[in-house]
Records
---
Amino acid sequence: MAYKHTATSDGVYAQLKEQILHLELPPGAAISEIETAEKYSISRTPVRDAFKRLEREGLLEIRPHIGTFISLIDLNAVSDVLYIREVLEFSVLSDLSRMYDKSQDLRIRLILQAQKELLDSDMPIEELSRAFINSDNEFHTALFDAAGKKNIIKFLYEYNSQYERFRTFINFNGKDDLTKLYEAHVEIWNCITTQDLDGLNACINHHLYDGFSSSSDVISKCPEYFTKIR
Amino acid sequence: MAYKHTATSDGVYAQLKEQILHLELPPGAAISEIETAEKYSISRTPVRDAFKRLEREGLLEIRPHIGTFISLIDLNAVSDVLYIREVLEFSVLSDLSRMYDKSQDLRIRLILQAQKELLDSDMPIEELSRAFINSDNEFHTALFDAAGKKNIIKFLYEYNSQYERFRTFINFNGKDDLTKLYEAHVEIWNCITTQDLDGLNACINHHLYDGFSSSSDVISKCPEYFTKIR
DNA sequence: TGTCAATGACTTGCATACCAGAAAATAAAA
DNA sequence: TTTTATTTTCTGGTATGCAAGTCATTGACA
């Protein structure tokens, strides 16, 4: 992993992944190797490499001799990622709370400030949502980093493609959800700096699951995007 | 993932992975596509697929136009996996402890019994070690399953190739370590059935880290197998 | 009209040839 | 002898053709 791959294969991988996560390539849609190759004016080989990689991340479903399809959003996988995040995040942030010193405060506050400014801006909701999700990831990464657990969140991010896609799906809903996220961030940071572990636990729980539970009506708008529930 | 791939690519992947995890292909060794292809009497294409997959799991390092090498054992990655396992396992087993009912007891005790019999047998240490590690994984899988969190441990297993390899490395050491693992298993199960959460926490901690801390002298026997420590 | 087999148009998996980059070996020059 | 070009020979990356599997259409036959 320390050494670069060729840009061709990596390029189509990155572009396809972004399109899938942003639902521009909708769940269930067919996508063929040769078609993609022609679109990018390259051969099938690097496309195949990218496809295989995306399949392992659960974003594509390759059915040999039949076709390749954008995978449906697997709510079970999303639920699993949420559980893992909840547990790991509480553990790491508890550690951080115990070792917290004021020198870390500025960096976090800057991120929070940026999020507030995003919410006050008048971007179109799609653009705002993307920008805010990026900032959200930045916030959580900064927290893990402050706790000396940078690698742990890298691990999480490699596995949460399904969750990212789900989040994109429900966040197009409106600005209110994003505002709630921001407020939760502020509260989480307050709990950490005041070493309120019980409050922290409750916060993380809410923060992660909130959008999830209030989303069943959103899901029903596009049921064909999702796998059947367990 | 629900659909099979072709057997050719999957086959070499599985075989190579086993050889790497069992250290038959030692860390740092070179391994070439064409050589491997000839060995299995297939073309480079399925070999390349397998290589790419192993690279993403951190078991190979592909350096374009230079060569492909069995990756060194990354103790940082091992340490991260241990942390994640500790946190997740304590959380899941705490849940299990709260919801424990006696119908689950038999299955676990059978696994423990099998482990005891393994230890009492007179297998050669290498074979014993492999068999015990398999049984160890079975034990932990059964626990997660009993807690209704089967997917969570699948998640873990996909990420712990580095850890598995490390374990193979230190367990060739002798029977004592395996005996300790067995005793820890018994104690963990006792803690769960008696709902002793504090004891459980301590157990898991010991269980995971024990072999790790006592292994620095073992590591020094083959320093060329490991990456530099953080 | 209804049934079933043949056919053709797709798909991805695999084999092979060629390309580009890197390193080592060789040859030429100081 | 030492140093510097140059060439040779590795490597993996890419392009492409063929093989094999799947499905929908079609046409023959009952």
---
Amino acid sequence: MKTKNKNLSSGLEDYLEVIYLAHLNNKQLKGAELARQMNISRASVSEALSKLVSKKLINYNSYEAISITKEGIKQASEIYNKHHTLENFFETVLGIEKNEASENACKIEHIISKNVLEKIHEFTDFWINNKNKL
Amino acid sequence: MKTKNKNLSSGLEDYLEVIYLAHLNNKQLKGAELARQMNISRASVSEALSKLVSKKLINYNSYEAISITKEGIKQASEIYNKHHTLENFFETVLGIEKNEASENACKIEHIISKNVLEKIHEFTDFWINNKNKL
DNA sequence: TATTATTGTAAGGTAAACCTAACACTTTGT
DNA sequence: ACAAAGTGTTAGGTTTACCTTACAATAATA
């Protein structure tokens, strides 16, 4: 007796994030291209896409470009914001180099709580405005 | 042609961490107790313990207390330090409540890079010494 | 348009972590 | 010392997320 689980797995979040990015950049994105970008087999992408379709986060028909739904955008942008907040904190406050900042953000974005994220965001803003006083 | 993988999975790191804690507190720890603490079946713990034994991170014989090896201590203490550094940062710098700080640390400790961790540590120290100036 | 390239999917497989049920072994308490 | 309680392992399942191989469908191009 399994019911729909509201929360996406890290994996599905990753797919959705790439799709969202393509959407932001007005890039057509097909399954094969997604597979290339994520370094994952076309077969696995195919499976993942049907999950995202059944969760109504994307629309997709074979051989057409993937499109993201309103709800998909909502969820993806949350993840994407987390990514940015983390990356920004790592770079601006901790002085981590962009690449490493991004890699760490990519992993942490899926598991950090909303509240901690907010605090990190606030702190980064605060830091930018006040670090000169130290 | 599979060779030994140097890195532990998150899961095995969790087991090792609990074993390490018992070691620090001079507590005898048997598989069944470990299962209880981690809310996992005895069967799963049994499997996990044989993996840790084969990686020479613990010593273990049925019905005896689990003991951790030198290498096990080395690896566990690294994870444990990460946990502490993160928890401390969340509490001290971000003002997160202990429980949430710990929960987030538990997840992030397995995936954050060593370098970022060090920077967080340094920053926390710096913050403690200088926040009064703001 | 015929051929080649690209794209998508189905089938079947692997590996990791978990589970329950059943059974065997060990320890404890009376 | 023996029954009850506790502990450990095995066998067999599930789920998730990958994979390869093989084939089918579509698109691009000579």
